[in-house]
Please model this.
Amino acid sequence: MENENNTSKITDTTQIYPVLPLRDVVVYPHMVIPLYVGREKSINALEAAMEEDKKILLIAQRNASEDEPKPEDLNSVGTIASILRRLKLPDGTVKVLVEGDERAEIKNLFTSEEYYSAQVSLFENKKIEDREADVLTRTVMNQFDQYVKMNDKVPPEILSSLSSIEDPSRLADTIAAHMPLKIEEKQLILEISDVRERLEHLLAQMESEIDILQVEKRIRGRVKQKMEKSQREYYLNEQMKAIQKELNDVPNELEDIEDKIKNTGLSSEAKKKGMAELNKLKMMSPMSAEASVVRNYLEWLTNVPWKKRSKVRLDLTKAAAILDEDHYGLEKVKERILEYLAVQQRMKKLKGPILCLVGPPGVGKTSLGQSIARATNRKFTRMSLGGVRDEAEIRGHRRTYIGSMPGKIIQNMSKVGVKNPFFLLDEIDKMAMDMRGDPSSALLEVLDPEQNNTFSDHYMEVDYDLSELMFIATSNSMNIPRPLLDRMEVIRLAGYTEEEKLNIVSRYLIPKQLKNNGLKDAELSISEGAIRDIIRYYTREAGVRGIEREVAKIARKVVKEILLDKKTKKVAVSSRNIEKYLGVRRFRYGSVEQEDQVGQVTGLAWTEVGGEILTIETAVMPGKGKNSVTGQLGDVMKESIQAAMSVVRSRSDVLGIPHETYETKDIHIHVPEGAIPKDGPSAGIGMCTALVSALTEIPVKADVAMTGEITLRGEVLPIGGLKEKLLAALRSGIKTVIIPSENKKDLVDLPRNIVSKLDIKPVQWIDEVLQIALVHAPEPIKESVGASKVKSGKKSASIRAH
Model:
């Protein structure tokens, strides 16, 4: 039988050899190697070989991690070896010295519980004796000589032993045994039976290894140059430090850090941690990357305020004066701040309150925070949470990361420099969450008065006391995680009334814009009528941001007018000439219908930017009793319409609506401004009134607006956002507002000017709503006297009065 390359013959044998599986080693013919055998089957195979002719088949495993190799885990080609010496060790393993004899390929593998055995085919090497073989052998020797000179891991003595080997096959195996190749590559060389092919393969392997060694040598050379440069710099730096110390010119950096650690007032835990890091820094090279990380850490640790506090103002009268000076209205917030100061004046030591100001944009939440800081004489620091989605923004990164830093809480504390500042958490409802963590959960510890005295930042790795801070969060909505909301005292800031806006514009915004645009007080005057026009016809908002932009626009145009026309010294803006500066009116004031309409009701809605009026339209047309709703309505509002329809149908007789109407008429309910999503149950009584008006053809009063949820029994349930809704009604010229009777208690907290300008009608049942809203009451359907009932199996009939 001949092998594939036709240069070596394979001879089948009948002898069966015990098999010893090897891990991470390939044994070649003529190779002497000690092996440590610990597996039970392998020891049994050794015992069997010792009892016979001390011959054993050494086969390398394909996967070295297999403790119990199966037949498919063994390579097919191995080496028949002679056992030279065997020694049992105290731990039960056997040390054995073996010498490879010849290559062999497994023909049949026999498995038993004790050990593997195999019948093999032996490779017979065909000797090559020609000029080409001599040249190839000499080339391999020269190449290996060059390889040994470049590789320190191969001892040079091996070259002298190789020079005495004349057999090319043995030479190839010896060189392969001394090269640091992977097991797979060594096994491949073992399986190449043709000597010439084996030598050529080795030559290619050596050339590849020499190329790698040359690259490594170049890299080592460059690194050595850099090392020498850095060592030189270190030596010069040390000399410079020594000279500076002798001259007392510059204080030692490490001594300066140590002085800070001892005198900054760190907690005992922080001081212990700081000294441990400093001792570590002293042992490092100043130029190392690790030294820079430790130095940065110590800087953060000593820069955070541990003891320094600002003196809190406890004078209530002065604090109240500052709050009134900066903001108009907002009485509840001001009262809460003064309460806190009063208690602190008595108690001397009080944990800072955690307030959450919830209101539409532009009502002064952020600027109120600055005003509170000024009133309490605390330093002000602000952290914007809009778009924050990484927990590390709050708690910091661990120091294992390159470029890690403390979280924003510790950064702001370091920047502000005192332990008891006023800390504003702006836009707390705008936080997001992703795979990097949930920042709102990280804030739970920060905002809990029972926990924040031991706040732990991932970077600092020591507890820090936040209990003396005064936290105030701001939000546009109540869309805040429940556990976080539970830790804060919520104060709602509703939109401003027209009178409040008038005062804010005249007291604060006009003087501010005059200053911002370089105008003197005498150069521009804006009349009260002009301010009211700006509020009514150029803005529609809960806050005053849009009004401020309009005032700024007037100021810019006046500056331009004064500079272009030298004769103009003063400009007076009034209702008559305001369109010259702001253009045509953008909104209608009192935008409700002027005439009473059938099937059209003015509802009231709450939005994040304040209250809005909500027109509800209903049309009835001939059809097959189909009901449809449009206007991008949410599920809750659609269910509210179904409830309203059921209320109307259940009261058809009282309302004078024939029962067959629902089968012969199609009803379409539409809420205009279809691009805006709408939802909520508070339009329930509006929907019901619109349906009754459309089905009875009785008009709804144009100056009446309403809000309230309806039940199937016709009861009117309470709603939220009453102040914002009443403000929207007032802005729109509504005279009468129908509200649920349970919301009557909320009227106590509303400004008197709102309540006095509106005729507010609390109601409990839908009948009261219809009585107020409709031009006249519907006429009930009367049954004729003596109407007979048809017996069972037929529909009941009655004579109706028309």
In short: The longest strand covers residues 94-110. Residues 1-7, 784-802 have pLDDT under 50 and may be disordered.
